[in-house]
Amino acid sequence: MRKPNAASSVLNPPGRMLYYDSVALMMTTPIYLDYAATTPVDERVLAAMQPYHSAAFGNPSSIHRFGQQAEAAIDAARETVASALGCQPDEIYFTSGGSESDNLAVRGAALAARERTGANRVVTSRAEHPAVSKTTQQLADHFGFETAWLPVDADGTAGVHAVEDAITPGTAVVSVMYANNEIGTVNPIHEIADLCRRRGVVFHTDAVQAAAYLPVDVRILGVDLLSIGGHKFYGPKGVGALYVRKGTPLIPVQTGGSQERGLRAGTHSVAQIVGFAKALDLAVQERVERTSHVQPLRDRIVGTVLEAIADSRLTGSPRVRLPNHVSFAFRAVDGNLLLTLLDAAGFACSSGSACKTGNPEPSEVMTAIGLPADWGLGSLRVTLGNQTTSEDVEAFLEILPPAIEKARGLARH
Q1: How many CA atoms, within 13 angstroms, populate the side-chain half-sphere of residue 43?
Q2: Which of 87, 196, 349, 355 does the annotation list as catalytic?
Q3: What is the tally of structural domains in the chain?
Q4: Backbone torsions φ then ψ of 57, nearest 5 degrees
Q5: In a shared domain, residues 176 and 75
Q6: pLDDT tens track for 234-288
Q7: Beta bridge pairs of residue 24
Q8: Is residue 332 one of the residues assigned to a domain?
């Protein structure tokens, strides 16, 4: 095989990636930097789940001893989650994940409020996860709700004053995420919750990204509804929970059986629920240790990238952001092309630009924070986790500048 020349080895750190003309040789140990998308399941979580895949396989709704064994596991998991969130066990409802929890919270609270009081307005921001924003849009398009889309500032923060201005006497529910999945900004949830309580409006927060690193004690946050999903903090996919403050009215979104006290029908996935509870318990116990591991690595990436790469900017708040989360915008870069180059070099990251096929466009978040298209299309999210090492970060910082240069060169042609 020919040795690469200078032009054909644009991305070529030692022992990683070689480009022979246009042919890429994949490195054998790719580096995962997309922990905001999902996380590997912790071995301790797998161990807790294992018995409920085999020996203790009963349906919790069954009366016999197999069912009772499964039901006891569900009850124990509910108590563990309630302890982590600082609430009562009967305020925890298990779901299939964060998206379902968001749907149940926003749609269920809006429909219940309208049924009880005639309230017909949903308040949320353009920077929300689609599980909230698309649910809100569906309530407008198919159920006749009025929507109020909160503005966010250049950091992506939904401020208390913006929420106050949007609340009217006919407001059914307000939903503002705890931490933004795309740009990492942390919103002032306690202050917004306090405002909503004083105005008599139900307040929901999507805490799916936040739960891995931020306090989720609902007594301190003051929220009425809070969504979390297990696979963001080293738990299994396909399971989540919704905290519902006692007395908060909700109309079920998924009907059928009497599971979850009639609020969410469907046979319980016992192993997933047990794993979810174990993972959340570990996240709470190890929060300080995990944060102290990822935050210096995050800061190293931010400082180096902004210094080394021209026409780059940090997106999201530089200070009030998730400790493992880095997000950038690069001018005149196709974000999807950049991801492809990084993936070929062995680094898994993500972007806020739209889809894998078709005409790309900036995400709603990039638009909401005011980035023009030539910046918004070049978004990059790098998120760190328990397994990320300083060597991983240094290797990434070595590969990123030439990847940006190559992406810009291809765009010019």
Answers
A1: 2
A2: 355
A3: 2
A4: -95, 5
A5: yes
A6: 999 999 999 999 999 999 999 999 999 999 999 999 999 999 999 999 999 999 9
A7: 19
A8: yes
